[in-house]
Design goal:
Shape: elongated
Distance between the termini: 50 Å
Largest sheet: 8 strands, mixed
Strand content: 15-25%
CATH architecture of the largest domain: 3-Layer(aba) Sandwich
Number of helices: 11
CATH class of the largest domain: Alpha Beta
Helix content: 10-25%
Strand order of the largest sheet: 1-2-4-3-5-6-7-8
CATH superfamily of the largest domain: Alpha/Beta hydrolase fold, catalytic domain
Radius of gyration: 23 Å
Number of strands: 19
Length: about 500
Amino acid sequence: MPLFGAPGERIGYELYSHPDGAPPLVLIHGFTASKASFEVNLAGLREHFTVVSVELLGHGDSEAPEDPVFYRPERAVRRILQLLEHLGYGRALFCGHSLGGALALRLALEAPEWVAGLIVINSSSAAGDPQWRDAARPSMSEMAARVRAEGTGFMKKTRLYPAHSRRLDPLSRELLTRDFDRLAPAGVAGTADSLVVDVNAWERHPTLSVPFLLIVGERDADFAPNADAFLSRFPPDLARVIRLPEAGHAANIEQPRQFEEAVTGFAREIAYLRAPAAQGSMVLTALGGALVFGGLGLLAAALFFTGGNDSDGGTIAAAPETTRIATQSPVAQVAGTSASGQPTRPSVVGGTAVAPSPAATTPNASPSAAATATPAPTRAATVAPTQSAPATAAPQPTATPTDVPSPTAVPTASGPFAALSGPSTAAVGEAITVYAQSGGGNVLRTDIKLPTGQALTHQAGASYTSTAPGCYIFSATVYFADGKTLTATHAVSVGGVLCSGGQG
C-alpha cells in the first residue's frame, strides 16, 4: 500500500482507478479498523466510482507516531485534503463508517468546497452531543493510558475485536482481525486521546452545506435509536437517510449490496453520477424529529463492529465553462486556468486552501453537476440534491444529472464573489446543468433562477431541458451574512441562436 504525507505521519491509501475516469469516492474506516472495512464493497463501488480508500493515522499501514497531537482532527482533515490534491482531485464524494464518518463530517464542515456529498454510516462520534463528549472523554483517556501501559492485548476481550463478530462475513472478519492484531499501541492511544471525542462537531451541525446521506444499520442498538435526532440537526433539504433493517454497526459489510445501491443512488440524486435511463434505486427520504441523545451507549456505537443486539447470527462529462460575475460591488474574477486551458486548483498549505492568482477563463464543453452554496468556502461550490420544481406551463428542469470528476473554478484570494457555470451551447432537448460558486464571506443561501423565471431556493445547481431554439438565461443570487447580495448570470445558446449582448 502506498503511503502519503510528511515523514512520521504518513497515511496509507489505495487508489482503485476506473477505466472511464469516474469521479472519486473516498472511503474512511472506523476506530481500530482499516481499509478492509470496505473490502466487500469494492467490486460494486468500482463499477461507478474511482475509489480511494484511506487509512487513518495509527491504523492499517499508516504510521503511528507517539505524540497524540498528530492525531488531532484538524491534522487528520488536512492529510486527507492534501492526499486528494496529490491525486489530482479537486472534489470528491466522502463516505465514512463510525469514527471515519465523524471525520468525514468534520471535513465537510471545515472544507465544504472539497465535498460533493457526504455519507455517514452509524457514527456516534459524529452524533454525540456535549454531554456525550463529557462522558466519553474519561473513558477514552483511560483506554489510551491502559494501551500505553499494557499494549492492545486486553482489547481482544472487548467488542472492538472483530474476531468476535458473528455479523461479519468470513473475509472481512479475517482481514479486519489481521489488521487489528498489528495495531501499534501508540496509534490506538493517540486516536483515543485526540480524535474519537475531539472530532465531534455537534455545535456546527446546522451549518452543514453539502448533501448528506445517513446510513443506519437498524440492528445497531446503540446508534439506530438516536439516528432521527442526529439527522434533525442538519438542514432538512440536505439530509437524507437509508435504513438497513438487517444490518448492525458495520452496515456496509452486513448488507453490502443495499449499501452500494444507497451510495450510487445518492450520488445520482445529487448529480454526482448520471442517472440511468430507468432508475430503480432505493428511496432517499429527509428526516426530522426530536429524540434525546444519552449515555455511553453512543460511545459503543462509535467504536464497535458487532454493535448492540448482536445475539443473532457512468460516463464523465467535460468541465463546464465558467462565466463572468455580476455583482453589486467590485469583485475580482474567480476562475483560474492553467496554460493548457484546464481549471486550476488551489494548493492546500497547512490545511488552508490557497487560491491561485485569478486569470481569464477558458471555455470547456458539456454540462457538469449541480452545486450548493457553502458558509465560508475557500475554493469552489459543492453538489446539492436536485429538488423537484413546482408545476408550470413552461419547460421544466430535469432531474438528469451528469458525472463530474472535480470542480472547475477557483475563487479569488479575497472578497465575496458569485459565479455561475455551465455550457455555452446546447442542442434542443438537451439537459442544461448549471451550478453556482461563491465565497469570500459567510454564505447564507444561494438561489437559482431558471429561464422560465422559476426560482429554486437554497439551491446552487439546477438542470433544465429546452424545448425550442433560443437564448436561455440562468441566474444565481448569493446571500451573505453581512447583508451583501451578489448575482451572477449565465447564457446558453440553444439550437444555434445567438445570445446577443452576452451575459450580465
